[in-house]
# Entry
Amino acid sequence: MKIEVREASLKDINSLIKLEKEVWGKEGADKEKISSRIRTFKKGNIILKEQVNNNILGYISFQYVNSLDQNKKIRWFQITDRGRIEKSHCRNGKFIYGINLSIHPEFRNRGYGTFLMLQVWKNMIKNNKKGVYLGSRMPGYKDYLENKKKVTPEEYVKIKRPDNKLYDKELRLYRSEGFKIVKVIDNYFPDPESLNYGVLIYRKNPFWNWPMREALAWLIGLINIKIIRTFI
Ligand SMILES: CC(C)(COP(=O)(O)OP(=O)(O)OC[C@H]1O[C@@H](n2cnc3c(N)ncnc32)[C@H](O)[C@@H]1OP(=O)(O)O)[C@@H](O)C(=O)NCCC(=O)NCCS
# Structure
């Protein structure tokens, strides 16, 4: 299967709406949100697309923010300007804030999510941002409470499997990408599996202010899905 990775354009909107619905149901980004994100900051919208059938397999979007008051109550709708980013994206912001990552259910566990995160890394290094924040889900929480043990969300996010990796599959994925947990946020985004909790996570840019950032970003651009699948 031939896959291309590129910035989304307004022509991709219908396919993106379809993907968002598949992944998030009624909470998926609609035409208004997606078009506003692309109009406001096109580089912050990256897609993985099948070249033959034109299906979009994955979509990641992000914005720049200047600072983040970690003591304040963070809500997805507020920090992303209701998913439209028109008023929340800060052109010269020092940090990246992740808005959305969606991989089509039929194409998961193939490294595509990690590959799209890598594109954010590339942007971070090239544009010398200090780091990446995002609000992760903790989708195993509801099930854990029902079938295992009553624990607080703060306790849950620290639970590890016997192999010393995090129990929650989504937090485990982000941990493997170098993110660290900042704090648990209640009512971050409507998400029944996570009981509406989110987890603010942060990945520092280890190459911040290094010389030759363009070259480093270019090197990261050489990493393809095959390489990722060899390592995860
Ligand atoms: C989370 C998500 C983007 C991962 O994409 P992906 O292409 O399957 O990820 P990769 O193949 O690069 O990595 C695979 C890892 O992701 C994990 N994963 C994390 N969240 C997952 C989820 N909700 N469903 C399935 N797998 C998930 C897998 O368990 C696997 O890790 P493991 O081998 O240690 O178990 C994808 O599952 C998805 O779109 N989920 C629904 C929307 C979502 O939660 N988006 C993230 C918003 S913060």
